[in-house]
Structure formats: C-alpha cells, structure tokens
Amino acid sequence: MPLTIAIDGPVGAGKSTISDEVARRLGILHLDTGAMYRAVGLATLKAGIDPRNEEAVCDLCEKGGAQVDVRYENGAQMTLLNGEDVSGQIRTQEAGSAASSVSRYVPVRKMLVKRQQEMAAHQPMLLDGRDICTVVLPHAKVKIFLTASAEARAQRRMEQLREKGDMTPFEEVLREVNARDLQDTTRALDPLRKADDAHLVDSSNLTFEETIQAILNLVEESYGK
Q1: Roughly what angle, to the nearest 10 degrees, separates helices 33-46 and 15-26?
Q2: In angstroms, rounded to a whole number, what is the distance separating the alpha carbons of residues 148 and 165?
Q3: How far is 147 from 37, CA to CA, in rounded Å?
Q4: How many CA atoms lie within 13 A of 222 on its CB side?
Q5: Cα–Cα distance between 147 and 204 in angstroms, integer?
Q6: What are the mean pLDDT values of the chain's consecutive 10-residue runs (225 residues total)?
Q7: Which residues, listed in sequence order, are joined to residue 108 by a DSSP beta bridge?
Q8: What pLDDT is attached to residue 41?
Q9: Are 194 and 143 in contact (CB under 8 A)?
C-alpha cells in the first residue's frame, strides 16, 4: 500500500502550504483537494450561477461545465478547470466562499471524491481537505487534524491576501473564517470533524517549522521513515 497521509482541518489552518512542505520533504505528491472544490466554485462564478443554487450548480456539472483535473509540474499541483490552469484564480475570497457552498452538494462531492481516491490508490501521496480522514481515505495510516484558533487563522489569511494586494480588513476576514467554519461543520453531507483516530495538531502557537516537524514526527512513528 502506498505511503498515504490524510490531513483535515478548517479554513485558514495552513493545510495547503504545510502539506506542500511535508510532501516535499517526504518526496511524495501533495493533492490539495480544496483546490478542486474551489475550481467548481469558480466555474459557477464564471457561468454567472449563484453557488447557493444547488440545482443550477449540479446541472452545470452534469453538462460538463465544471470539469476539474489535476496535473503536476516539478512536483507542484496545477488545478485545471475545463482545461484551463486556474491555480491562481481559485485563491480569492469569492472562490473560497463559492467552494464552501458547492461542497455541500452530493453530485459535486461524489464526482471529486471518486477522482481523489483514484489518484491516491496508485502512488504515495498526501491529501488535505475537509473530509480526507473521514470519507476520502478513512483507512489512511496517518491521519491528522490540523487546526488553529479562528483569530490566528484569520490573521494568516489576511497576510496572504495582503501579498496579493487585497486589503480586506481583519474583522471582515475573521467573520468570513467563522462563517466558513459554521458552514463546513454543520453541512448535512460529510461535515468537517476530527476523525476519532486522527492526531490533533494545533498550530496556534507553533511556528511553520514546528508544525512541519510535528507532522513529520507522526509520520515517522507510523511508517518509520
């Protein structure tokens, strides 16, 4: 069985950046599953569809208007939407909010979870998202729930936005983080939760390197690598 690591956690926990580095140090690929949901959310925005309109979103997917694929260049993930590289476009606040909405719909989740499981079955891989430990890879040998306080996550998210020239105030970012938490943890289908057998890693008071090391230690304990 390939070396497989599953990481779940709320928005702004740093899953993508941390997972990138952990995967790099282990010499395996990293699949950012949240990017796939963001791509579907972006597809709805591009089509002029309200992401909260379940019927319209599912119709768009059924008609092939939200075809999501993942490719790797030099170990880095490229997220494609209908053949276009949208890796940069999906990192906006709007795409994130849209992703939180479309991820509640059964057809969308089934479509993406199937693809994620197919990819992880054939090669060593680290997957991160909202339901990796509980739904996508329930039998993964290493399961981690990566989190941090809402304030810490909002601060990190704000700094990311600043780097892109987005001057959204901290208070607004914090409201968005809390709203996403509520939506992700209360959705009827596959809500965000810590798997019973997942290790909790709270990075609120940890540096980036300390967080990386904490995860690598857990991998070593399980795989001896």
Answers
A1: 130
A2: 25
A3: 20
A4: 18
A5: 8
A6: 90 92 94 95 98 97 94 90 96 90 93 93 92 94 97 93 91 94 88 96 96 96 76
A7: none
A8: 98
A9: no
